[in-house]
Amino acid sequence: MNSMIQGQLFTILNQTAREGGHYAGVETIKSRLLPWLGTCFSSTTSGRPFETSLSLIQESIEKERQLREFASTRNHELQQLEKELNSTRLQLTLVQQDLAEAQMALEDTKTKSATTLLAAEDEIVHLKAALKASQAQEESTLRNLDRLNDYEQQVQILKDEIAILGAQKSVLHSRLARSRSPSPRPCRSRSPSPLPLRSCSPGRARLTNAARHAHLVARFSEIYTQERLDAQNLLRTYIDDLEIVQRIIYVAAVESFHAAKMAFRQFKMRVRKTLSLTYSGPESLEDTVLDYIVRHEDLYDVQASVNEVIRAMNINPKISFPPEVDFIMISSLIRELCRVAFSMQTLVPPLDIAFGADGELFNESKYRRSYDSDFTAPLVVYHVWPALMENDSIIVKGEAVSKRGALWSRRSRSKSRSRSRSMSPILSHSASPSRTLLPRSRSPSPIRSGSPRPALNTSNTSDCLEPCAFT
C-alpha cells in the first residue's frame, strides 16, 4: 500500500510538474522531489524506513502549503496592483477631463476677449464716424450761418434798392402829373417826396467784389482753355497756317476788351446822367452807379460790341482771312470775351489785358512761351493770348511765341502783303439803324509804323465823354 501511495503521489506530482500552475511549476519540486522519488521507486531495495517516507510526504505537503500561501499572497498583491492601476487610470481620466474643461474655458475666454475687442473697435469706429458727422454738421451750420448773414445783407441791400426805386417812381409820377396838367403852376418851389432812411451799409458791388473777381478770373482762364481752342480748331479748317490763326484769336481778344470798355463807359455815363437827377443818399453817386451796373449787366448790348470787334478785325493789317468766309465764325468767342471784359470793368479796381507788341522783349512774369517757341530767343514774334492784369500787377499770364530771326523775315514779307475786305453783309443787315457805328479810326500796325499803340487805361476814364484818341 505504501508503494501504491507513493506511486500515485509520484504520478500526481509528475503531472503537476508537467502541467504547471499559475507560476508554471515550482523549481523546488522539479529539482528535488521528483528526482528523489524517482530514485526511491527505481531502487530495488525497499527497506527504506517508513519514517523517511513519512518525512518526505510531510515535507512535500509543507511545500505545497507554502506554495499555496505564496500564490495567494501573489494573487492578493496582483489585485492590489490592479486596484491601484484602476484608481490611477481614474485619476488620469479626471485630470484629462479637467484639462479639457480648462482648454474649453481658455477658448471661451479667448472668444469673449476677441468679441469684446471687436465690439470696442466697432464702438471706436462709430464714435469716429459720429465725430466726423458732428464736425461736418458744425461746418455746415457755420456755412449756413455765413450764408444767412449774406442773405441778410442782400435783403438789406434789396430793401435799400426798393426804397430808391420807390423814391424814383414817386418823382417820376409827380413829373408826369405836372406834364399832363393844363397850366403849369407858377410856384416852382415844391417839397420833394421824402426818401426813406437807408442804412450806411456798403453797396452790392463792393460786397460781391471779391467773389466776382475770382469768378471772372476763372472764366477768363476757362475761355483760354475751351472757347479759344474751339475757335482755333474751327479756323484751322479754312487756314493752314497756325500763326495766322493764333494772331486772329489774339486780335479778337484785344478788340473785344477795347469794345467792351468803350461800351462800359457809355453805359456808365448814361446811368450817371439818369441817377444824378433824382439821387440823394448817404452813399456816393459813383457807388450807386456801379451798383446799378452790377445789378443790370443784362442791359449791356453785347451784340453791338461783337459787331464793332468784327469791323475792327476786318481793317486790321496784321491778320488775313480767306474772302469767302467771315470773322463772324468766331462770334461766340468774341461774345464771351466781351461779356467777361464788360464785367471786369465793374470790379474795384477793374481788370484789363496787358499791352503787347510784336518784337517786344519777352517777359517771363508776363507771358509763358508756347510749345513751338525758341526758349533762348529774347524777342516775341507774335502773341497767342493776352495777359490779365490788375493795376500794374499780372494776375494771369498770357502766351507768346519767341523765335530767332523770324521777326525780321516777317517784317520784310508784311510790306508786300495787303488786305482789302468789305464789310460783312451779315453784319450790315443784322445791326439796327439806331446802333450803326462807323468804323473807328485805327493807328498803323506796330509792325509797320514801329510805334506800338499804348495800352488803354481805364482807371481814370469814368468821366470821359468821348472815345480817347490813340497814336
Question: Could you characterize what this model shows?
Answer:
- With 471 residues, this protein is mainly alpha-helical.
- The protein is 61% helix and 4% strand.
- It has helices at residues 2-19, 27-42, 50-180, 204-207, 209-236, 242-275, 285-295, 302-314, 331-344, 406-414, 425-430, 446-449, and strands at 351-353, 367-369, 382-385, 388-390, 393-396, 398-401.
- It has a 3-stranded antiparallel sheet.
- The longest helix is centred in the N-terminal third of the chain and has 131 residues, at 50-180.
- It is rod-shaped, with a radius of gyration of 61 Å.
- 19% of the residues are buried.
Uncertain residue segments:
181-201, 414-471
Number of strands: 6
Largest β sheet strand count, sense and barrel closure: 3 strands, antiparallel
Helix-strand pattern, N to C?
HHHHHHHHHEEEEEEHHH
Rounded radius of gyration (Å): 61 Å
Shape: rod-shaped
Short description:
Helix content is 61%, strand content 4%. The protein is built from twelve helices and six strands.
Topology overview:
Blueprint: H1 2-19, H2 27-42, H3 50-180, H4 204-207, H5 209-236, H6 242-275, H7 285-295, H8 302-314, H9 331-344, E1 351-353, E2 367-369, E3 382-385, E4 388-390, E5 393-396, E6 398-401, H10 406-414, H11 425-430, H12 446-449
Parallel strand pairs: 2-6
Antiparallel strand pairs: 1-4, 3-6, 4-5
Helix pairs in contact: 1-2, 5-6, 5-9, 6-7, 6-8, 6-9, 8-9
